[in-house]
Amino acid sequence: MDEIKQGLSEIECDVLVIGGGTAGPMAAYKAKRRNPKARVVLLEKANVKRSGAIAMGMDGLNNAVVPGFATPEQYTKEITIANDGICDQAPVYKYASRCFDVIQELDSFGIKFQKTENGDFDVKKVHHLGSYVLPMPNGETVKKALYRQLRREKVLISNRYMATRLLTAKDGRIAGVIAVNTRSAEFLVLRAKTVILCTGAAGRLGLPQSGYLWGTYENATNSGDGYAMAYHAGAGLANIECYQINPLIKDYNGPACAYVAGPFGAYTANSEGNRFIECDYWSGQMMQEFYNELQSGKGPVFLKLNHLHSDTVGQIEAVLHKVERPSRGRFHENRGTNYREKMIEMHISEIGLCSGHSASGVFVDEFARTTVTGLYSAGDMASVPHNYMLGAFTNGAVAGEHAVDFAAEVDVPDYDRDDVVREQERVLAPTQRDDGIPPNQLEYKARRLVNDYLQPPKVTAKMQIGQARLAEVRDDLDNAMVVRDSHELMRALEVSSILDCADMAAYASLFRTESRWGLYHNRVDYPEKNEEDWFCHSILSKRDGRMTAEKRAVEPYLVPIDESERDAYDRQRIRQHA
Amino acid sequence: MPIAYAPTTVPVVVDDVKCIADKGCTVCVDVCPLDVLRISDLTGKAYMKYDECWYCMPCETDCPTGAVTVNIPYLLR
Ligand SMILES: Cc1cc2nc3c(=O)[nH]c(=O)nc-3n(C[C@H](O)[C@H](O)[C@H](O)COP(=O)(O)OP(=O)(O)OC[C@H]3O[C@@H](n4cnc5c(N)ncnc54)[C@H](O)[C@@H]3O)c2cc1C
Ligand code: SF4
Ligand code: SF4
Question: I want to staple A175 with a disulfide (CB 3.0 to 4.6 A). Which of A50, A105, A169, A185 is the partner?
C-alpha cells in the first residue's frame, strides 16, 4: 500500500455524488429511489462507513422545524435575521417545509428522536427567537443506518478516491470528475450527466491554537476540495467572507455546547461566572460578543455547568462524552477537569468556510443547482445558510431527486482528453522531484499565515500582506513540493485546496467594504454595516483564469421581515445591571 | 535539501497481543477517515503510520478485539 502506481480507468454514470459524509449518501439514496434504473455512483475520499462530520454520530438536530413547535415561515425568518438579512429565502423555506418528512424517514431507518412522556417530540429552545433543537437518543447509529440504506438500494460506492478536478464540456456543462486513489495514486475518470458536490466544509483553513494541524473543528478530511473544484469549474461561490468560527472547549475541538448542555441549564460565562450573551445559538453576532469577552478583563470564557446537580451533569456527559466526539471524556480526564467542580475554559475555533454553520458556500438555488449546468451541491459546502445536519440530509435529497430527473433527459457530455492529461501532470508533478518541501510543512505555513493575516478582526493592509505571503507558498507548492507516497500525495492535493480557499477568503473579504455577520466579517477599517451598498450577496468566480467578484441582489423575501425585527440578532449582549 | 524526520509520539496505540491483523483483519485501517493506520510488514499488526489523527475513534469502536486505544494527541493534552 501507498506506493505510487500508474493507472487510468474510466467509468460512466448518470448521477455522480462526490463526498459520502452526510448530504452525499442521502443524495445518492434519493436519486436511486426515484429512478432505480439510474446508475448512481458515490465517490468518497475516506470510507462511507465512517466518514464526514457524522463519522461517529451526532448529538441531535440543531435546526428541526417540527409542526406544533415552529412553522417554515418562522424558521425562514429566524435564519434570515441570524444571517443579517443576506439570504435567498427560497432554499431556506424549502428546507424548512421538507425537513419534517426527512425526520420521519430517518426515524424509519431506525434513528430515534427524543420524545416527551406524552409522545410529542421534545424540541428545545436554543435559538434567539424560536425552538428548533431536537435531541437524538441513539445518535451514534446515524451513519450505520444510512449505510444500510445505501447497500439496500445498491448504490455503487467508490471509497478512497479523492476527487481533484471537475470536467466540463465545451458548452460549459458538467461532464464528470477526475479522481485519484489515495492508496495507489491511480487515476479514475468518472463521466457523468450530473454531479452533486457534497464534500463538506473547508475545515482545514485556519490553524487551531494548539498548533496541531488535525485538531480542527471540522472532520479534518474536509480540506475544502469541493470549494476549490467548484471554483475551477467556473461556478459562483457566495459570501465566502462570511467565515465559520465556532465556540469550542479550549484545546478540544468539541462543540461546547449550546445545543446539548444549554437545554439542561448550562451556559457560557465569563471568568466571574456571569452570563454575558443572551443566547448561545451560534451566529456571527454571538461570536463577536464571545470574542469581545475573551479580549476583555473578564475573559477568558467558560462553559458553566458546576451549578447543576451532579445527576444532570451525568446526563449531559452521557451525550457529550459518547456520541459525536467520544474522546472528549478522555480529554477532561487527562486535564483533571470535571464539569461538576469547575467551569471549563472555552475558546474560539480556527476559521473555516462553511454554510452548514455559517453562510459561506458554493451558490445554489432551491433545487441545489449551482451556476454550472448539471452541477449540484448540498450540505456544508452549499450556500444555504445555517443548514447543519438536517439541512445536509434534506438538501441532499433535493439535489439527488432533481439531478436524477435532469440526467434522464440528457446524454453523457463529452470532455476534452487534454484536460485529463493536464490534471495528471499537475497532480503527479511533486512525485517527479527527489528533493523539496514536504506537504505538511507547506500546509503548516499556509495555515499559520491564514491565522496571522486573514482571521478577523480583518485589517485591509494585513490581508494584503497575507495575500502576498500566500502567493509565495503557492509558488513553493508549484515548484518545490516533494511527495514520496500516495498518502502524501493526497495531503499535497489538499494543500492545494487549502491555498485556493485561503485566496478566496482574502479576496472576498477585501471585496466587501463593510462589516457584517458580527465577528465573521468584522472589517476594522469599515466598521459599520452598510445596507445601501452591501445589502447583497458577493459572488466570487473564476473568469478567464482569474478570480473575480461581483454583487448579486438578494431575492425578494417570501417571508417579510418587519423593520423592528431585523436587528434582533444584534442584541446579543446582556444589558449591564446598574 | 535533505528531509529529516521530526519524531512525535502518536496518539493511537494497538495492543499487539489482541490485534488479529495476522488473521486477515483490517477493520481499523478500513474505517479511519484520515487513513493513517496500516498493518506492519514487520509485525503483522496494525499501527499508526501517520500522525494525522482527528481522535474521532472509529478505529477503537469498530475493532473486534478491543486492541485499539485512542489517546488525545500530546499537543492538546
Ligand atoms: C464536531 C461536529 C459536531 C456537530 N454537531 C452537530 C449537531 O449536533 N447537530 C447538527 O444538526 N449538526 C451538527 N454538526 C454539523 C453537521 O454535522 C454538518 O453540517 C453536516 O454533517 C455536514 O454534512 P456534509 O455532507 O456537508 O459534510 P460531511 O458529512 O463532513 O461529508 C463530507 C464528505 O466528503 C468527503 N470528501 C471531502 N473531500 C473529498 C474529495 N475531494 N473527494 C471525495 N470525497 C471527499 C469527506 O471524506 C466526507 O465524507 C456538527 C459538525 C461537527 C463537525
Ligand atoms: S481492527 Fe483491531 S484486530 Fe483488526 S487490525 Fe485493527 S487493531 Fe487489529
Ligand atoms: S481516532 Fe480517528 S483519525 Fe485517529 S486513527 Fe482512529 S479513526 Fe483514524
Answer: A169
